[in-house]
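User: Round two. Same drill as before: sequence, then structure, for each protein.

Assistant: Same drill it is. First protein:
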Amino acid sequence: MKKKYLSLVLALALCLSLAACGAKEEPAPAENNAPAETEAPAETVTLTVAASPTPHAVILQQCVAPLAEQGIELVVNEYSDYVIPNTAVEDGDEDANYFQHIPYLDEFNAERGTHLVSVAGVHIEPMGIYAGKTTSLDAIPDGATIAVPNDPTNEGRALLLLEAQGLIKLKDSSNLSATPKDIAENPKSLEFKEMEAKTIPSITSEVDLAIINSNYALGAGLNPVEDSLAIESSDSPYVNVLVVKEGNENNEAVKALIEVLNSDAIRDFINEEFDGAVVPAF
């Protein structure tokens, strides 16, 4: 009887041992302090804008930080002429440009068959008359030579400024594309030296008077408010605009740039930085 009992005990022990060896070990509970998965940051969008160095590029630089907070990298590419910034946008090499007013844009589209549109007005740069050989409008001699921009809209603008000073009279004062051929009265027999706008500041000593766009005046170290003999009034129709190719008006990065350009912060910057030489138009 004892042998049978002992055998039963041994058999039970063996079964329990085999069961223990065959059991799978349960995994340890995960630590609660494991780092949580985070979403990958949104990809940065790049927006390229062609601009004249002053004041356009200077103003755009104030937009870099606010746009970066929205995941937009604003790249400002500076140009010193009035043609390439438009052809670059038309060809898709630039997303937008900021250097021109609407009369010039309209003329450019009409002449070159481009498809560029204004999406925001930003500022006005009053065009000014600057002294050359003659230091006063009252001292202009007969036959004086006046340097004016040779592109259609800026030349018309220059002639309108001269008309406002009583120096000439145009056949049609509403013609924004007037040329010297459209002058009806020229009592002092003024002569006009038609040149690329960007070159005029460098030849002021060679002419009696020079009519200069404010961006080029500023670039030459001139203050349009303090240094000009006469300047356009604040109601000038020549608002400088942000331009894109037709079809890109609703680009989200462009819309974000418009919002920043037309913000109170940019208005304050323009007023403080340029002291009347550049005037906000929004």
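Second protein:
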Amino acid sequence: MKIGRFSTKLKTGKADEYNDPARPFIEHLIDLRDCVVHCAIAWGICEIAIVPCAPAITRWLMAPAAQSQSMIQGLSWTAGFDVLIDIMLWGGTALSLPFLLFFILRFIFPGLKHSERTMIVFCLCLSAVLFGGGVWMAYAATLNIAFQVLQQLNTWMGVKVEIIRLDQHADIVIKTIMAFGLAFQLPMLLLALGWIGIVPSSMLREKRRHAIVIIFIIAMVLTPPDPVSQIVMAVPMCLLYEVCIWVIRLRELARGKKTEEPAAP
């Protein structure tokens, strides 16, 4: 994989070394300035580019509450503007992430070894998969369950809800899918720390009970106020925690076996 003029591929016969020669400090400052400017320009362009898609995104945000869509209304002159700002902020930032990562990696890759660059690329790919899985779970399952549970609770309590504010509904949906996407980054962080030997699998096993409690607390804070959606978030995170333990353990076994191998004569 190539990031700008720097490649993550190790050339045959070359050791794991840096691929950027020493340069004056001022050149690093210039590169940093260019990185920041390019990131700002990319973010601004994506914020504007997402605007024509705002009506379609609004309909997408309303879809999880399919049974209550007739009740969702804008109750003020600024309701549409408020939703548009949320879509520009979150949607534009999400759209700009590939460009931001490209410029940031182009800046930092020269100062990293091949193994470090490979690890970063792997973590970014895994992070994207986990984030997408979290967003999909939130949108396809959690939000539908949460709205149904809340609607049944209102009916049981005798509370009649006739109108739902569009801006509040969009805010709940956006925050929920973002919360799921970010919460699912925990396994990537644990794998990265375990891969480089900072967090051993034995410690993760010893702290399993504490981790489960923390996961359920995170789920309680990040999900809508109903126990079902909290469980929907917490259970996959607990399973991913277990996967991290086994992956890190396999890494430790492979590293130990490699260390024990006798040196070639």
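Residues 67 and 148 are 9 Å apart (CA to CA).

User: Perfect.
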